[in-house]
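Example 3.2
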Amino acid sequence: MMFRAIAVATALFVLTVAASTGLGRTAEWDRYKNGRYAYSIDMPPGFSEIVEADNGDGGKAHSAKGDAELVVWGTILTDLTLREDVTQRILSDEEEGWKLAYSGGNDAGWNWSATREGRILYARAVPLCADEAAYFRLEYPAADRKAFDAVVERLVRSFGSFEGCE
């Protein structure tokens, strides 16, 4: 009986968090396409549209509550491999106080996750054509981790090039 009460309470909590963050609705996912670097990513329900940077390499979107931020961008890998670029970005995150929890990858892409002051950072880098790459970073409250687990999974699956290389 006690186990059932705990299971029901847990389920209600997850549903409440999902409803309050706008993450429980699966039908409202949109897609952002970046024309400059030819990458795309699904946009979580309840997030604003990407506000693009002036140079057209990507931009930012925020959750409805404003407590989560998704940043996407493309870049040219000048003098670095994707792995080397990711390593430099991880070191930069650590210098900014993020505590690395995970990092790993292969030729298809690199992922890392870190925590700082009650927040979680999840980042992914994928190779594009020639010496180009695309990145996304999602930062959100650690208290909403369970609600964001499915969001991170969908972002990872949807992120990549939408054009073949010549």
